Amino acid sequence: MSVPTSSRTDRAGRTNVQKAALVVGVIFLLIGVLGFIPGITTNYDTMSFASHHSEAMLLGIFQVSILHNIVHLLFGVAGLVLARSVSGARSYLVVGGIIYAVLFIYGLLVPQDSAANFVPLNLADDILHLVLAIGMVGLGVALTRGRAGADA
């Protein structure tokens, strides 16, 4: 009988779903930090706390604000904390993916120049949110498939 992929652990005792949540968390932390670095974030001097008026662009592509960067940092910390257990890692990936699906829909429905676009979001953000939604939910489900009561 083979051991399910999600049950395999590395030397530190982490399952694949925990490692995935850890990697995603680290990436979000990195993105949050990069959003505050002039040069990596273009139009840095136009960055506002929140709203579509922030014209700061991470990597010259993704519209960001101070709030947006703080959310990335907090999301990254959540990934690191929740990666400590299998159920936490799965929840982080699946619920986080659902949150990004909601953000994708929000970005499609709310006009970019609207006051309701407080995050702020542009088309590149919308596409990235869709990719994150699919990827995170996919990882959370695939890496815990066949595992009853994901705990540990």
From TrEMBL:
Keywords: Membrane, Transmembrane, Transmembrane helix. It comes from the Bacteria. The keyword Membrane applies. The chain crosses the membrane at residues 20-40, 60-82, 89-107, 127-144. This is DUF4383 domain-containing protein. The lineage of its organism: Bacteria, Bacillati, Actinomycetota, Actinomycetes, Propionibacteriales.
